[in-house]
Design a protein that fits this description.
Length: about 425
């Protein structure tokens, strides 16, 4: 909580040390370390160890150590995720009097669009809310876990409220989130259409008995208000990134809604719940993004010491498509898409590129890769909390990502054709 507050203060008050919020983030990770899933702990240790070795090697070759980049490169994304987590308090807790879950294709559709629409703003909290309800009456089935994983990862093609997309925008200064929406949105719509076809064509096991979550679409007012506020602020202000605007506006919108709903007493109780229960569930995100930040800092230092070698001169649709294929292949080998981004970002200053195109490419790589990666956050959550095999989910989602790959590639070529990129 203090990390979020300090990060907000630093946005408007330059006197705040740029290391203050990152140090608080690392302190939070230390407190929550024992609760981080074992697989993620080893992944983070590998990231930090590899980054530290590269930093030491580069330091020995005369590259100075950038402590702010090493400790805090991805910390603003964690502040954004902490702010969005506040919105989860506005969902009513489960009631013992709730009726039995409905079944069938219609409920499948409700669940599909519900987790996607809510996930586009409140992130993985939407999956947790739905999976908590689905698993109350019986353990989560594989077909339910597949739907949650696929419909949620499709959000990563366009929504700046998702960590991967926020990372893509943060790593590409000058990129336009509206272009990300324009080119990533159709890929997400194709993903949803594919999932609808899966349900109609019998590719979802026992669709007639599919237990789904009865989504109340009147609850969409909050995501709509926040999304509208962010886009309006982006269009009417200068000097603030979308990531910064989300970090500032999510607590304001969420806090205002809490006050309207429960008054000061209700808001105080909700904030106690936020600090003591909701934020501690961010241990996995803290581990992933802080560890990847050290890895990225190490890669930046190594490339700085090698005289600016790059694998290609410019990024266009052809090599962008190869990067998407590479992300799927490395994700199958349990290498998180964040590693690919961390490798690419240090190269960008020496490569001719369009910032918005690279952001679109990064977002698509994140969405395609996380669906098939057994070590992605969504698949690990469904495994550790609800008993679905993250390995089975990764394998089952491979046809889904491979079917969307040509759509994503076509979107990259369309961007190149419209804006005159040279591949």
């Amino acid at each position: 909580m203090t990390m979020l507050l300090v990060s907000l203060a630093a946005t408007f008050w330059p006197l705040v040390s740029p290391l203050a919020a990152p140090l608080l983030a690392w302190a939070a990770l230390a407190v929550l370390w024992s609760g981080v899933r074992r697989q993620q702990r080893w992944q983070t240790i590998a990231f930090v160890a590899a980054g530290a070795v590269m930093l030491l090697w580069a330091f020995g070759r005369g590259v100075p150590l950038d402590l702010e980049r090493t400790l805090g490169q991805n910390q603003p994304i964690l502040s954004m995720l902490a702010g969005i987590t506040l919105l989860r308090l506005l969902n009513a807790p489960l009631s013992d009097e709730e009726p039995e879950l409905p079944r069938g294709f219609g409920t499948y559709l409700q669940s599909l669009f519900g987790v996607h629409l809510f996930g586009a703003v409140i992130n993985i909290s939407a999956v947790i809310l739905m999976a908590d309800r689905l698993s109350r009456e019986a353990p989560l089935r594989l077909n339910q876990a597949e739907l949650l994983s696929r419909s949620f990862t499709a959000v990563a093609f366009y929504s700046p409220f998702i960590g991967g997309v926020a990372l893509a925008l943060a790593y590409t200064p000058g990129s336009n989130p509206l272009l990300l929406l324009a080119f990533g949105g159709p890929v997400a719509m194709a993903a949803l259409g594919l999932l609808v076809w899966y349900g109609r064509s019998g590719r979802v096991d026992d669709i007639d008995n599919f237990r789904g979550y009865p989504v109340h679409y009147e609850s969409l007012w909050l995501p709509l208000v926040l999304g509208t506020a962010v886009l309006t602020a982006y269009a009417t202000t200068t000097g603030y990134t979308v990531l910064t605007l989300i970090t500032v506006l999510a607590p304001l919108v969420g806090g205002g809604a809490l006050l309207l709903r429960g008054g000061f007493a209700g808001t105080r109780a909700a904030l106690v719940d936020y600090v003591s229960l909701r934020l501690p569930q961010m241990g996995g995100e803290l581990a992933l993004f802080l560890g990847a930040g050290v890895l990225g800092a190490g890669l930046v230092a190594v490339f700085a010491s090698t005289g600016g070698w790059v694998p290609f001169d410019r990024i266009g649709a052809w090599n962008g498509s190869l990067i998407l294929v590479g992300c799927i292949l490395t994700s199958l080998a349990c290498i998180h898409p964040i590693v690919l981004l961390s490798v690419m970002v240090p190269l960008l200053p020496a490569i001719e590129h369009d910032a918005s195109f690279v952001a679109v490419m990064f977002a698509m790589a994140w969405g395609l890769g996380c669906a098939v990666n057994p070590m992605s956050g969504i698949n690990l959550v469904l495994s550790s909390r609800y008993g679905a095999s993250n390995w089975a989910l990764g394998r089952a989602n491979l046809p889904f990502s491979l079917t969307l790959l040509p759509v994503a590639v076509a979107s990259l070529y369309l961007y190149e054709w419209l804006f005159g990129l040279v591949g």
